[in-house]
Amino acid sequence: MGGSARTWRIAAMVCATGLLFNGPVAAQTSGDPNPGAITLTGAMDVSNAYLFRGIPQDDTGLILWPAADLGLALKSGSGTMRSITVNVGMWNSLHTGITGADGPNGKLWYESDFWTSVGVGFAGGVRVAATYTAYTSPNGAFPSVKELSFKASAGVRGTNPYALVAFELEGQADGGAVEGRYLELGAAPHLGLSGLTVAVPVKVGLSLDGYYEGLRGDERFGFFSVGGNVTVPISNERSRFGRWNLHGGADYVRLGDSNALRLGENSKVIISAGIGLSY
After folding, report:
1. Could you tell me which of 149, 175, 190, 257 has the fewest CB atoms within 10 Å of its CB?
2. Of the given ranges (131-145, 160-174, 184-198), which has the lowest mean pLDDT?
3. Which domain holds residue 116?
4. Residue 8: pLDDT above 50?
5. Residue 181 to residue 236: CA distance in whole angstroms
6. H or E element at residue 206
Protein backbone atom coordinates (compact mmCIF):
# COMPACT_ATOMS: atom_id res chain seq x y z
CA MET A 1 0.00 0.00 0.00
CA GLY A 2 1.38 3.47 -0.84
CA GLY A 3 2.48 6.36 0.21
CA SER A 4 4.07 8.84 0.41
CA ALA A 5 3.47 10.06 -0.75
CA ARG A 6 -1.76 10.07 0.61
CA THR A 7 -9.97 11.06 -0.40
CA TRP A 8 -11.31 13.73 -2.43
CA ARG A 9 -13.27 15.69 0.14
CA ILE A 10 -15.78 17.97 -1.60
CA ALA A 11 -16.99 19.23 1.75
CA ALA A 12 -13.53 20.52 2.68
CA MET A 13 -13.33 22.39 -0.61
CA VAL A 14 -16.72 23.99 -0.08
CA CYS A 15 -15.92 25.04 3.50
CA ALA A 16 -12.65 26.57 2.36
CA THR A 17 -14.09 28.59 -0.54
CA GLY A 18 -14.88 31.66 1.54
CA LEU A 19 -11.32 31.80 2.83
CA LEU A 20 -9.74 31.36 -0.58
CA PHE A 21 -11.09 34.68 -1.84
CA ASN A 22 -9.09 36.43 0.88
CA GLY A 23 -5.79 34.81 -0.13
CA PRO A 24 -2.60 36.64 -1.18
CA VAL A 25 -2.60 38.58 -4.45
CA ALA A 26 1.11 39.30 -4.84
CA ALA A 27 1.57 36.45 -7.31
CA GLN A 28 -0.99 37.95 -9.69
CA THR A 29 1.64 40.26 -11.18
CA SER A 30 4.59 37.88 -11.03
CA GLY A 31 3.90 35.96 -14.25
CA ASP A 32 2.74 32.87 -12.37
CA PRO A 33 0.22 31.07 -14.63
CA ASN A 34 -1.66 29.98 -11.49
CA PRO A 35 -1.77 32.96 -9.06
CA GLY A 36 -4.67 31.60 -7.01
CA ALA A 37 -4.85 29.61 -3.80
CA ILE A 38 -5.42 26.24 -5.46
CA THR A 39 -2.49 24.05 -6.54
CA LEU A 40 -2.72 20.85 -8.57
CA THR A 41 0.12 18.32 -8.71
CA GLY A 42 0.23 14.98 -10.44
CA ALA A 43 2.60 12.27 -11.59
CA MET A 44 2.83 9.02 -13.51
CA ASP A 45 5.68 6.72 -12.52
CA VAL A 46 6.80 3.25 -13.50
CA SER A 47 8.77 0.90 -11.23
CA ASN A 48 10.21 -2.60 -11.03
CA ALA A 49 8.99 -3.29 -7.46
CA TYR A 50 6.65 -2.01 -4.77
CA LEU A 51 7.41 -2.21 -1.06
CA PHE A 52 5.09 -0.31 1.28
CA ARG A 53 7.16 0.81 4.28
CA GLY A 54 9.33 -2.23 3.69
CA ILE A 55 6.38 -4.64 3.42
CA PRO A 56 6.65 -6.46 0.05
CA GLN A 57 3.69 -6.00 -2.30
CA ASP A 58 4.97 -7.10 -5.74
CA ASP A 59 8.20 -7.31 -7.72
CA THR A 60 6.90 -9.09 -10.81
CA GLY A 61 5.90 -7.49 -14.09
CA LEU A 62 5.43 -3.78 -14.66
CA ILE A 63 4.14 -1.44 -11.92
CA LEU A 64 2.55 1.95 -12.68
CA TRP A 65 1.88 4.68 -10.11
CA PRO A 66 -0.55 7.43 -11.25
CA ALA A 67 -1.24 10.07 -8.59
CA ALA A 68 -2.91 13.46 -8.17
CA ASP A 69 -3.21 15.99 -5.33
CA LEU A 70 -5.24 19.18 -4.91
CA GLY A 71 -3.91 21.74 -2.45
CA LEU A 72 -5.89 24.64 -0.96
CA ALA A 73 -3.97 27.55 0.61
CA LEU A 74 -6.20 28.82 3.40
CA LYS A 75 -3.55 31.17 4.80
CA SER A 76 -0.25 32.52 3.52
CA GLY A 77 1.75 35.31 5.10
CA SER A 78 4.27 36.31 7.75
CA GLY A 79 4.39 35.89 11.49
CA THR A 80 4.82 32.82 13.62
CA MET A 81 2.17 30.83 11.73
CA ARG A 82 3.04 31.30 8.07
CA SER A 83 0.57 29.04 6.26
CA ILE A 84 -2.41 26.71 6.54
CA THR A 85 -3.12 24.25 3.75
CA VAL A 86 -5.64 21.52 3.04
CA ASN A 87 -4.82 18.74 0.60
CA VAL A 88 -6.93 15.99 -0.90
CA GLY A 89 -5.62 13.39 -3.30
CA MET A 90 -5.26 9.87 -4.53
CA TRP A 91 -2.46 7.44 -5.39
CA ASN A 92 -2.82 4.24 -7.40
CA SER A 93 -0.74 1.16 -8.13
CA LEU A 94 -1.41 -0.80 -11.34
CA HIS A 95 0.31 -4.19 -11.68
CA THR A 96 0.83 -6.50 -14.64
CA GLY A 97 2.38 -9.18 -12.37
CA ILE A 98 1.02 -11.73 -9.91
CA THR A 99 -0.92 -9.23 -7.76
CA GLY A 100 -2.53 -7.69 -10.85
CA ALA A 101 -3.21 -8.74 -14.43
CA ASP A 102 -1.35 -12.07 -14.06
CA GLY A 103 -3.02 -12.81 -10.72
CA PRO A 104 -6.05 -14.94 -9.85
CA ASN A 105 -8.68 -12.37 -10.90
CA GLY A 106 -6.75 -10.92 -13.83
CA LYS A 107 -7.41 -7.30 -12.81
CA LEU A 108 -4.67 -4.69 -13.21
CA TRP A 109 -5.75 -2.22 -10.49
CA TYR A 110 -4.05 -3.46 -7.31
CA GLU A 111 -4.29 -0.46 -5.01
CA SER A 112 -6.05 2.89 -4.70
CA ASP A 113 -5.35 5.24 -1.79
CA PHE A 114 -7.33 8.35 -0.86
CA TRP A 115 -6.17 10.98 1.61
CA THR A 116 -7.06 14.31 3.14
CA SER A 117 -4.51 16.37 5.04
CA VAL A 118 -4.27 19.60 7.01
CA GLY A 119 -0.86 21.25 7.32
CA VAL A 120 0.43 24.26 9.22
CA GLY A 121 3.68 26.04 8.38
CA PHE A 122 5.64 28.04 10.95
CA ALA A 123 8.55 30.46 10.86
CA GLY A 124 11.91 28.80 10.27
CA GLY A 125 10.57 26.30 7.75
CA VAL A 126 8.91 24.08 10.36
CA ARG A 127 5.75 22.31 9.21
CA VAL A 128 3.32 19.93 10.89
CA ALA A 129 0.53 17.99 9.18
CA ALA A 130 -2.20 15.51 10.05
CA THR A 131 -3.38 13.08 7.37
CA TYR A 132 -6.21 10.57 7.14
CA THR A 133 -5.59 7.85 4.52
CA ALA A 134 -7.77 5.01 3.27
CA TYR A 135 -5.80 2.23 1.52
CA THR A 136 -8.05 0.10 -0.70
CA SER A 137 -7.60 -2.69 -3.25
CA PRO A 138 -9.94 -2.49 -6.28
CA ASN A 139 -9.00 -6.04 -7.35
CA GLY A 140 -9.52 -7.42 -3.84
CA ALA A 141 -5.87 -8.35 -3.24
CA PHE A 142 -5.92 -7.09 0.37
CA PRO A 143 -8.47 -5.80 2.91
CA SER A 144 -8.83 -2.04 3.28
CA VAL A 145 -6.74 -0.19 5.85
CA LYS A 146 -7.60 3.16 7.42
CA GLU A 147 -4.90 5.25 9.03
CA LEU A 148 -4.28 8.54 10.81
CA SER A 149 -0.76 9.97 10.66
CA PHE A 150 1.12 13.02 11.94
CA LYS A 151 4.24 14.43 10.32
CA ALA A 152 6.67 17.13 11.43
CA SER A 153 9.34 18.44 9.07
CA ALA A 154 11.85 21.27 8.84
CA GLY A 155 13.68 22.92 5.97
CA VAL A 156 17.14 22.77 7.52
CA ARG A 157 19.83 23.80 5.02
CA GLY A 158 18.47 21.64 2.23
CA THR A 159 18.31 18.44 4.28
CA ASN A 160 14.53 18.42 5.00
CA PRO A 161 14.50 16.11 8.05
CA TYR A 162 11.14 14.73 9.14
CA ALA A 163 9.41 12.38 11.56
CA LEU A 164 6.13 10.60 10.87
CA VAL A 165 3.93 8.65 13.28
CA ALA A 166 1.01 6.60 11.92
CA PHE A 167 -1.84 4.85 13.74
CA GLU A 168 -3.86 2.11 12.04
CA LEU A 169 -7.53 2.72 12.81
CA GLU A 170 -8.92 -0.26 10.92
CA GLY A 171 -7.09 -3.13 9.21
CA GLN A 172 -3.39 -3.96 9.22
CA ALA A 173 -0.81 -3.21 6.54
CA ASP A 174 1.19 -6.30 7.56
CA GLY A 175 -1.89 -8.56 7.61
CA GLY A 176 -1.26 -9.15 11.31
CA ALA A 177 -3.56 -9.67 14.29
CA VAL A 178 -3.70 -6.11 15.67
CA GLU A 179 -3.75 -2.53 14.39
CA GLY A 180 -0.22 -1.19 14.61
CA ARG A 181 1.63 2.03 15.30
CA TYR A 182 4.43 3.09 12.99
CA LEU A 183 7.36 5.51 13.19
CA GLU A 184 9.38 6.78 10.23
CA LEU A 185 12.44 9.02 10.45
CA GLY A 186 14.06 10.44 7.37
CA ALA A 187 15.63 13.26 5.42
CA ALA A 188 16.04 14.20 1.76
CA PRO A 189 19.20 16.25 1.20
CA HIS A 190 19.03 17.91 -2.19
CA LEU A 191 21.15 20.11 -4.42
CA GLY A 192 20.38 22.14 -7.54
CA LEU A 193 22.87 21.66 -10.37
CA SER A 194 22.48 23.51 -13.70
CA GLY A 195 18.72 23.33 -13.62
CA LEU A 196 18.64 19.79 -12.24
CA THR A 197 17.67 18.79 -8.72
CA VAL A 198 19.56 15.88 -7.17
CA ALA A 199 18.18 14.37 -3.96
CA VAL A 200 19.46 11.62 -1.66
CA PRO A 201 16.47 10.43 0.41
CA VAL A 202 17.24 8.39 3.52
CA LYS A 203 14.66 6.84 5.85
CA VAL A 204 14.08 4.13 8.41
CA GLY A 205 10.77 2.49 9.31
CA LEU A 206 10.13 1.21 12.85
CA SER A 207 7.26 -0.47 14.67
CA LEU A 208 6.09 1.32 17.80
CA ASP A 209 3.60 -1.44 18.50
CA GLY A 210 2.29 -4.29 16.34
CA TYR A 211 3.25 -2.84 12.95
CA TYR A 212 5.73 -5.51 11.80
CA GLU A 213 4.32 -8.76 13.17
CA GLY A 214 6.56 -11.76 12.45
CA LEU A 215 7.03 -15.32 13.62
CA ARG A 216 8.63 -14.02 16.83
CA GLY A 217 5.97 -11.42 17.49
CA ASP A 218 6.29 -7.70 16.86
CA GLU A 219 9.63 -6.66 15.33
CA ARG A 220 11.00 -3.17 15.92
CA PHE A 221 12.99 -2.77 12.68
CA GLY A 222 11.04 -2.76 9.41
CA PHE A 223 13.38 -1.30 6.82
CA PHE A 224 16.14 1.15 5.98
CA SER A 225 16.47 2.80 2.59
CA VAL A 226 18.81 5.22 0.84
CA GLY A 227 18.48 6.42 -2.72
CA GLY A 228 19.43 8.90 -5.40
CA ASN A 229 16.88 10.80 -7.48
CA VAL A 230 17.19 13.36 -10.27
CA THR A 231 14.48 15.79 -11.38
CA VAL A 232 14.75 17.63 -14.72
CA PRO A 233 12.33 20.48 -15.58
CA ILE A 234 10.93 20.24 -19.10
CA SER A 235 8.77 23.38 -19.20
CA ASN A 236 9.11 27.04 -18.31
CA GLU A 237 7.77 28.05 -14.89
CA ARG A 238 5.52 30.62 -16.57
CA SER A 239 3.94 28.11 -18.96
CA ARG A 240 0.14 28.34 -18.96
CA PHE A 241 0.12 24.54 -19.01
CA GLY A 242 1.90 24.32 -15.67
CA ARG A 243 5.38 23.15 -14.70
CA TRP A 244 6.36 19.72 -16.01
CA ASN A 245 9.35 17.56 -15.09
CA LEU A 246 10.99 14.23 -15.75
CA HIS A 247 12.33 12.37 -12.73
CA GLY A 248 13.93 9.05 -11.92
CA GLY A 249 16.21 7.26 -9.55
CA ALA A 250 16.99 4.17 -7.52
CA ASP A 251 16.58 3.19 -3.87
CA TYR A 252 18.39 0.48 -1.94
CA VAL A 253 16.11 -1.04 0.71
CA ARG A 254 17.37 -3.24 3.57
CA LEU A 255 14.60 -5.23 5.23
CA GLY A 256 13.87 -6.45 8.74
CA ASP A 257 13.42 -10.18 9.37
CA SER A 258 9.66 -10.47 8.81
CA ASN A 259 9.72 -8.38 5.62
CA ALA A 260 12.76 -10.27 4.32
CA LEU A 261 10.90 -13.54 4.91
CA ARG A 262 7.95 -12.29 2.86
CA LEU A 263 10.18 -11.12 0.01
CA GLY A 264 12.55 -14.08 0.07
CA GLU A 265 15.64 -11.85 0.26
CA ASN A 266 17.14 -9.33 2.68
CA SER A 267 17.33 -6.35 0.35
CA LYS A 268 15.92 -4.89 -2.83
CA VAL A 269 16.91 -2.22 -5.34
CA ILE A 270 13.87 -0.30 -6.56
CA ILE A 271 14.21 1.64 -9.81
CA SER A 272 11.56 4.15 -10.87
CA ALA A 273 11.05 6.93 -13.40
CA GLY A 274 8.20 9.16 -14.44
CA ILE A 275 6.73 12.50 -15.41
CA GLY A 276 5.33 15.12 -13.04
CA LEU A 277 3.11 18.21 -13.23
CA SER A 278 2.56 21.14 -10.88
CA TYR A 279 0.07 23.93 -11.60
Report:
1. 175
2. 184-198
3. 10-278
4. no
5. 43
6. strand 202-209
Burial letters for 84-122: b for 16+ Cβ neighbours within 10 Å, e otherwise? bbbbbbbbbbbbbbebbbebeeebbbbbbbbbbbbbbbe
Query: Is 2 a domain residue?
Result: no
Residue 18 has pLDDT above 60, yes or no: no
3-state helix/strand/coil string of 31-94: CCCCCCCEEEEEEEEEECCEEECCEEEECCCCEEEEEEEEEEEEEECCCCEEEEEEEEEEEEEE
* Adjacent-strand bridge partners of 3: none
Contact 133, 114 (CB under 8 A): yes
| Residue 180 three-state SS | coil
In-domain check, residue 61: yes
Please state, in angstroms and rounded to a whole number, the distance separating the CA atoms of residues 119 and 88: 11
**Domain count of the fold of the chain:** 1
Alpha carbon distance 155, 46 (integer Å)? 29
Q: Using DSSP, state whether 265 is helix, strand or coil.
A: coil
pLDDT at 43 over 90: yes
Asked if 162 contacts 144 with a C-beta cutoff of 8 angstroms, the reply is no
pLDDT score, position 129: 98
